[in-house]
Batch of 4 targets.
Target 1
Amino acid sequence: MTVQHKPPATVTHDSSTPLPRAITVDDPETLPPTGEPCKTNILSLFANARSANRPLYIAAPMVRYTRLPFRLLMQRHFAVDITYTPMMIAREFKNSKYARMADFSTCDLDGPVVAQFGAPNAEDLIEATDIVKAYVAGVGLNCGCPIKEQNQEGIGAVLMGRIETVESMVRGVREKFGRSVVLDVKIRIHADLDRTVEFAKRIAAAGADIITVHGRLHKQRNSVPASLEAIRRVREAVPREVYVVANGDCFLAADAKKIVQVTGADGVMAARGLLQNPALFAGYERTPWKAVELFWSYAMEYGSPFKNTQYLIVEMTQGLLTKQERADLRLAKNYQQMEEWLDARFILKRRGEVGFAEKEFDGYRK
């Protein structure tokens, strides 16, 4: 294992001091963050990384999982430069306080984070953006989600066949907010790559700041290799001031290097690779034990649905637990059972205890 000694985007939090409180967009007792890291200018991050001849490392929007605790783990400790929220449904976000509370929270340590929305029209996207823009470093439009139910509502990958609709959404955000909102459009590819190139050129002309390309067709499974050729063609086709991010098949730091070499992309986005190893961009070939302790701490402090936390810990421990142990951990029904299971096998250090988040791979196994 080779560990890259690249510092995280901001200083890690002192484990001996309390974590900052969570912030939601409807909480009258909190104000939007006004400085680092939430309001980091991510276009400056791209420009600086380009000058340094390196890509930005980015955590993809992952359904249910890129909530506040997992974002903090990756950015504050393991070299991820930018994280995304899970895709949020713009119509629900703008209409329902409950949806906003359930889908989005942040804190003074969070970010830079991009709030990604699924939207079928400019009105929904603009209204959702207006609510969240003070709390994030950018907003993303999802044109890649393959879920049938979302596609039936005009959201996600179905938009790859509706370029005029996507253009209207991008122009609508740009006309409403000017350059005060950084806008990313995440796309998939077409069987005819000329269509993908034309799609990207049109959304760049409409005002997108970032184009993230998932190099697979709408209905292709993840077992099909992502098309790096498609991403390369998009990078070559759009103006240099529009940043292009490559998404697909990044599981190791070496994968990120190869993707950039082939595509010329300005950033590399990982999803499944980070679920299995949130430290991959820091050069770890498998999850270090300290990541488990850190994630547990953030989940307990900021709240996380039990099933989400359970799934993430099972995924993260592929190189730490045996196959049977991971199967047993899946049988836990609630937080108490999962905590008892971990404490029976490990000395699970809590924040503030001596040795918290220091162990690499033996995990204090009993």
Note: Confidence is low (pLDDT under 50) at residues 1-11.
Target 2
Amino acid sequence: MGQEDLDVFVLTDEEGHEHHFVILAEIEDGMKKYWICEEIMMNEEGQIEQFGDIYPFEVKEAEDGGLYIDSVQSEEEFERVSKAWEELLTKDEELRKLVEPEDQQHE
């Protein structure tokens, strides 16, 4: 999965600032679905300039059939999703190379 294959979406915070994210993975935990997303900084040409922090978002279905995302609400839920993300990274070398700098991959 190269940078050109990443799904990008934009969230606007309470202050009206836009934040761009890429979807790295989708995790299902029981009846819930999560997207593991990394914030990205875009240049004026719309290309990824820099990668930032990784966040889990719960994916929910809206009444109209569309999807929306919400932040993970509890610390317990956050820990479960984080553990599932870590397990996915240990199994998926291509994904691990995408999110971890090479100097951290063998620590």
Note: Residues 3-101 form one domain.
Target 3
Amino acid sequence: MLSRPNRLTRGAEYKAVVRRGQRCAGAHTVTYVVTSGEVRASRFGFIVSKQVGNAVVRNTIRRRLKAVCFEALPSVRPGSEIVIRALPTAATAAYGDLRDEVARCLARRAA
């Protein structure tokens, strides 16, 4: 899983990435990416609202997205801040579909 230096933790950080970030939308997720010239670890944040499903479904989706980002971490540009918002269709999406969609957006915006 993603270690502490690789996670966004404050609401202000999420808000800044969503407002200033480049968007990449897919069928199940919307990815926001802000890249900076700083030399530090890439950081990820996840937004999974109640529209996606109950707590069990939301936590499952969040765990899947964390696993996908952990796999993609070596290919992401250092200093990037990424927020992934799950859409309601993510609840029924297969893991492979989520992985392909997020990997495509990360390759396009954060590689």
Note: The chain has a mean pLDDT of 92.
Target 4
Amino acid sequence: MDTPLREPTFLILTALAAAPMHGYGLIREVAALSDGRVSLRPGTLYGALDRLVDAGLVAVEREEVVDGRLRRYYRLTGDGEATLTAETERLRRNVEAASTRLRARSGAAPAAAPRLAGGLA
């Protein structure tokens, strides 16, 4: 993927970098990674996972039946790891550039000199 990743996609890949996970585990992990800012619904998650599988960034690790329901575990592929690494580096460079500009901005505008009591009326 040459374009920047959308935040939910970035967080899904980040979650899978730790270990293979099933859908509900991914929903919880993405919420935790984003401090609750990103809340994936099952339809959104599985649509994203289908796209990531098609792109070769994620693969099905295994399937098991739990309480009569199929649970599918997903894992990060080598291409997925490379994509996540590249995106992490891109974001790091952006943060570094913004931080440098903000530091320069705060240093470029010195505080106004304090007013002394008295003076001309």
Note: The chain has four helices and three strands.
